[in-house]
């Protein structure tokens, strides 16, 4: 596809943050280009679970119906096991948002992109890569889109980097992280079918240095995730996937459950990641999602934070009425104020020793 030319908005990255931003900015643009480096059918281990605050963000962006249509059950509470004690938690039902959801990324990401494309002025190219951001007088004016067929120059009124926590483009722009903290946690997960577990409740189980979380995430489908402190792996030399299998098998409820059900994916995950905050905007550019604000997966706040950054950008565009000539000053402060508690939680879990 020939994408060379001018676009109101060019978005690097087409997952949660990129797709939500394309959807949110489309009413203010003539045409938007989304470029994603990965193939549409390629996924890696990243969960997406959120709580009441996440539901509110989806609704703020007009995407809650899309998310609910993904078919994951809503959970209205969870059981929390510590040793032999199990405590039941019920989520307050003060409004329509009092539930948690977990949607596999294989379902969520395409649904979001399909909704964005339904605007009619959003074009998606993948696999393709945004690189070599172009600047004139310190302002971003476009970039190069690298596809299998060669490089194509594009210009834009706004370049949005939704290209994840390892954003090379953010680094090239000089958007240096001004807060960082390294996570001691290794997060692993796998999906299962046919588990004899409730479909309206999640299950948390904590034991020395690790936590297991089982959440229903589709029709007859569950995600079981583990967060294990690196000191635990370090002291035993056990591979994270082996530790995951051992923890699940030994857990009093989950062990018998997985023996009766079926694991449908490999065990995979990520660990010891750097958490960071970068400036959210500069002349002609904005960072949304993990590229500018990366929270520890243990906190399960990444999705909510990605949506919050998209909403802040959308609100700025709404106030201005159009993309061209947008004043992006002050958005970093607004974002940091909005997500302060989430960052504090990330710092707390990152400074924790192995005994939870
Ligand atoms: C193991 C694990 C478990 C997690 N669990 C949870 C959870 O339970 N709840 C929660 O809320 N969050 C969780 N998270 C965090 C959550 O996955 C992220 O916050 C979320 O994926 C951020 O979305 P994003 O769109 O910003 O970035 P990403 O999902 O990383 O997407 C970035 C996209 O940009 C593309 N890209 C990269 N470079 C370029 C380029 N140059 N040009 C074009 N495209 C490019 C990539 O191919 C990718 O598709 C977890 C993360 C991990 C790793």
From TrEMBL:
Every FAD-binding domain range: 8-196
GO molecular function: FAD binding
Database matches in SUPFAM superfamilies: FAD/NAD(P)-binding domain (SSF51905)
Annotated TM spans: none
A Pfam family annotated for this UniProt entry: FAD_binding_3
Protein name: 2-polyprenyl-6-methoxyphenol hydroxylase-like FAD-dependent oxidoreductase
Organism: Krasilnikovia cinnamomea
């Amino acid at each position: 596809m020939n994408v060379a030319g001018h676009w109101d908005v060019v978005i690097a990255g087409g997952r949660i943050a990129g797709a939500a931003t394309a959807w949110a900015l489309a009413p203010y643009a003539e045409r938007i280009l989304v470029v994603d480096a990965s193939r549409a059918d390629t996924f890696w281990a990243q969960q997406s679970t959120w709580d009441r605050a996440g539901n509110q963000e989806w609704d703020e962006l007009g995407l809650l119906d899309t998310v609910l249509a993904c078919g994951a059950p809503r959970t209205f509470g969870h059981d929390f096991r510590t040793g032999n004690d199990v405590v039941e938690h019920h989520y307050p039902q003060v409004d329509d948002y009092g539930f948690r959801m977990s949607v596999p990324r294989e379902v969520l990401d395409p649904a979001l992109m399909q909704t964005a494309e339904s605007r009619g002025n959003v074009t998606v190219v993948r696999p393709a890569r945004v690189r070599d951001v172009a600047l004139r007088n310190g302002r971003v004016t476009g970039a190069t889109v690298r596809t299998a067929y060669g490089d194509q120059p594009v210009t834009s009124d706004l370049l949005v980097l939704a290209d994840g926590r390892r954003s090379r483009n953010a680094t090239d722009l000089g958007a240096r992280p001004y807060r960082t903290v390294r996570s001691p946690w290794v997060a692993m997960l796998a999906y299962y079918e046919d588990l004899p577990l409730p479909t309206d409740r999640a299950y948390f189980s904590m034991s020395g240095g690790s936590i297991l979380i089982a959440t229903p995430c589709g029709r007859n489908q569950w995600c079981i995730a583990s967060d294990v402190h690196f000191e635990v792996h370090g002291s035993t030399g056990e591979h994270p996937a082996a530790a995951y299998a051992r923890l699940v098998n030994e857990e009093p409820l989950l062990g018998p459950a997985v023996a009766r059900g079926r694991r449908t994916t490999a065990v995979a995950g990520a660990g010891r990641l750097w958490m960071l905050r970068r400036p959210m905007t500069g002349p002609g550019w904005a960072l949304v999602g993990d590229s500018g604000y990366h929270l520890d997966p243990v906190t399960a706040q990444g999705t909510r934070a990605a949506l919050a950054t998209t909403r802040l950008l959308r609100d700025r565009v709404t106030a201005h009425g159009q993309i061209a000539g947008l004043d992006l000053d002050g958005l970093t402060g607004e974002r940091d104020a909005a997500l302060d508690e989430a960052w504090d939680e990330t710092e707390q879990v990152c400074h924790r020793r192995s005994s939870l």
